[in-house]
Amino acid sequence: MSKISIISSSVRNNRSSHRVTKYLQNYLAENHPNQAVDVIDLDELNFPIFEERLSHQKSPAERVIKFANQIKESDGVIIVTPEYNGGYPASLKNAIDLLHPEWRRKPIAISTVSSGAFGGSQVIISLQFVLWKIRSWVVPAQFPVPNVDAAFDEEGKASDQEGTDKRAKNFIDELLWCMEANEKMSK
Ligand SMILES: Cc1cc2nc3c(=O)[nH]c(=O)nc-3n(C[C@H](O)[C@H](O)[C@H](O)COP(=O)(O)O)c2cc1C
Fold this sequence. Notes:
By secondary structure, the chain is α/β, with parallel strands linked by helices.
């Protein structure tokens, strides 16, 4: 059974993008029941501000080691990120920089989220570059979410279920294709 980890990046009080994490988790459970899915919630993990990479830390915290193992063992990753001032939140960069070999050749699909009309369209380029730089494999598919509070309730239920599921299918199918291709090439 292959495994997908969904990184929920926002640590903001009363965050909304976590709704998208819940939606994608539920979508995968309903449509790909044989797929193991883990949510990596950066708010729960509450990492301190970056001081050093895991591989250079003398006594790393248990939760950092767990995070590294989760990424290492994942066949694919989804990053759900809000857009803050045209970029991604510091909590996400803080977590990305902790690891290095764990990201290599990892298929990563990005979902950008905003409360405005543009679905976080400005954050994607800078995040793609960072993920490319760290040698992951950015999946060429998007799941942008505009007007997040109207699009999903707190449990991740979509207000337009049919339309949202259709967009999620394109996004998830592309991630699964990349995961399968990666597995074949890694044998
Ligand atoms: C510091 C900050 C900066 C923001 N900048 C943008 C922005 O550049 N573009 C945008 O569409 N929304 C922006 N927003 C609104 C966010 O899209 C909105 O708060 C969304 O719900 C973010 O996800 P979160 O609730 O999970 O933190 C910003 C919000 C914050 C808190």
